[in-house]
Every structure is written in C-alpha cells, then in structure tokens.
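Internal tracking record. Fields below are filled automatically when a chain is submitted to the structure queue. Please do not edit lines marked as system-generated. If the sequence contains nonstandard residues, flag them in the REMARKS field before resubmitting.
Queue: standard
Priority: normal
Entity type: single polypeptide chain
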Amino acid sequence: MSYDLVIIGGGPGGYNAAIRAGQLGLKTAIIESRGKLGGTCLNVGCIPSKALLHASEFYEAAAKTFPSMGVKITGLSLDLPQMLKQKEDAVDGLTKGVEFLMRKNKVDYVKGFGRIAGAGKVEVTGPDGAKQTLETKNILIATGSVPTPLPGIEIDEERVVTSTGALSLNAVPGKMIVIGAGVIGLELGSVWRRLGSEVTVVEFLDKITPTMDNEISTAFQRTLKKQGMKFELGHKVTSVEKLSNGLSVTIEPAKGGQARTLEADVVLVAIGRKPFTEGLGLETVGVQTDARGFIPNDHFKTNVEGVYVIGDVTTGPMLAHKAEDEGIAAAQIIAGQWGHVNYDVIPNVIYTDPEVASVGKTEEELKAAGVEYKVGKFPMMANSRARTNHETEGLVKVLEDVATKRVVGVHMVGTGVGEMIGEVCVAMEFGASAEDIARTCHAHPTMSEAIKEAAKGVDGWTMQA
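SYSTEM-GENERATED OUTPUT FOLLOWS
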C-alpha cells in the first residue's frame, strides 16, 4: 500500500492528525500497537483518571458534604468493582468512537508496532508477528511518552505501581505513598484518599507542582493538606522493600540528612514521563534526538525531509490538547496549507477537587524575564455562587503586561476552573487586556465572575471583595 501520510501512534495527536489529513484528502494510515486507539490519554491516562476522580468526588461528597446541605444518606458504601467498571465502560465507548472516526474519514487503521524502515517506508509488526511494509510520502511520529522509572525501584503494577496500575487497584490501600508531587501523582493520590486511603506525597523539590505559579501552588497544597493529604517535601525515596505484610519505604532529605522509613501498602511512582522512541527505527533515516531523548522539530518537521513529529515525543508540555493542536497543524502543513500552534496559550489543568487551571506566564517567569506587570486577585470565598455551593476554596489571579496591556497569564484554584480557563484562553488569543475581561458581562451568579473581579483588580477596582 502507498500513502500520502503514515502516522505512527494512535493517541490524541496521532488520531487528530489522521482525521484532519483525511478531511484534506490525503490517503492516510495510522498505526497503533496497543490494540485500541486513543493512546495513553484515552486508555490509561486522562480519561480513566477523570472517571475515577469524578466518581470518588461523588462518594466523598455523599459522606461529607450532603448532610450539611440537608441531604441525608444511610448505608453509604463503596462498590469499587462497579467504580472501576464504569471507568472501563467510558474508555471502551470512547476508543470505539475514535475507531469510527477513522472509518468516517477514510483512514486505514493498522494494528501493530510501527517502525521506520528507510526513506518512505514504515514496517508494521502485527499482533500475530506478521510483518508488512507501508510506503508513504510522509511519516508523522506521534508515539507519545511512558512513565519515567525510578532507579532501584521495581515496578510490579500491583503494590509498586505507575499511573497505569494506580487506575486498577483491586482494593483501597490502607496507606499509599506517592513519589512525585506533579499532576499525575496528586490526581491519583486524591482519588484513593477520597476512597479511604491515608496518602503521603514524597517530593524531591521544596514545593508541589514545581512549574506552577508559587502563590497558586502554596494555596493548592494548603487545601490538599486540609483534606488530609500529607507531604514530605524536599525528600527523596532511596528504596522500597517488599514485605509480606506491606512495603517499607526509605526516604531521606534531598540535601542530605537522616534517613527515615515509612510504611505503605501501595507505592505510586509518578516522577514524570519520558518520550517513547524505542525501536522506532529513527536511525534508518537519521532522525535526531536531543540529550533528553526528545525529537526536536521546526514547525513539526524533524531534521529529515518528509518526517514530522508531534506530541509528547517532541519538545513542549506533555499535554493531550497540545498534541491535538500539533496534529492538526502538521496535517495541514503536509497538505500544503498553513499550520500553527500558539504555545503561549496552552492551558494546564489539575483535575483534583478543587481543580487548578493556568495558562500563560507565572509571576516568577515574568520577574525572571524583567517584564513589568500588574496583578489582580479575587478569592473564591467572595464569589456568591461559590458561597452558595459551599465551594469556597481557591482564588483567581490575573497577570497583565504593563507595556502591552495584554493579559499574559491567569492562574486559578477552585471548583470547575478547568472549564473556566477556556474563557481566558480565548481572551488571550485575541490579545485582550484585563479591562476587556472586566468590562465583559458575565452571568450572575456564576463562578466565572471571579475571573471578572480579578481582572478588575489589575486596575484596582475590584468591587465584590
């Protein structure tokens, strides 16, 4: 078979590139080794974790929040098998939906492991071991990322798990230790805390979510501690010993000092992810990788003519929506059209409860760059809908560049802020000032009014607090 485009990897970047290529009339094939399209995000990442986050929020609310709102429940209990089943049902429905979209857009879906086998050739090893070679004018690498291992720690996906194993535990652990205070660790740690686990997070650095705006990170950690999550910041895990009745986890200060031992039933290793390039045949055509293993790109082009790259396997934030936008842009470039991604307006969301959402520059980044800026803040405690809903944790913070009068960063903690961040992204994409947001009518009472009030605060006229 001969194609205009062969895509290696069926995650959000790959399958969106395939859809757009099909829409543009390119004869396209997509190769996926997992047996299901959707990649890490849909199968063992974004989607199943959100299914468990959502369900566990209901469970905790029924136990702790409903009574204060006049809703009394007797006999509340956890049905973990059903909670896991509804997660799998969501994944199954969505993966089948992506497969339908391939057929709808006349994209050939090839099951197997794809590797470049020379210029214009991709070899696919099927589930049965049979090999076939696809000839193509263009190749798009969209193989994503895998969990970063911790040296000396053996993963068994039962007691010592990555995010994959943490999505399918067959019982609520009495004690869970999470190694890494990033997005994945905090999201999955919060799931099992709500379901009854005692969760301790061990982080090498002195703050959680290290790339986040410091003020927001501090507020977020304060909320998580209030909920019962424990933290060992500035510490590293040096060993995990498997015992008959649990795990013995040795930690010590990152800067040196006395070691201590913590007990756990499950350890979640969540220290980040690394690009997946193993066995892709990059050397057959000379595709280069950088010191960290990423494939560099120039407008999605690698250093080799006709070979493109998108998503987690290349540079930039490891986010599904970033990969999606890159996939669309790359497909359009291959089809001879324009393609562009604005990396200054890529939102990031942590789906805990409350959520954390941000886009653009942090206050620390603006200071480091010598940019003069103004800040507006508004606490959720002063928002009428938040007060009514008993969801008052958090704040909104708006940063505006003084010279350009453009909003260059917005950071939020609060219930539902993952949905609210979209408003800010649109505003920033169109070069809005804080005043533009402040003078845009928002429905009352809504949580989004907190954005309006914070924007007013940039020019010193916050009214509701």
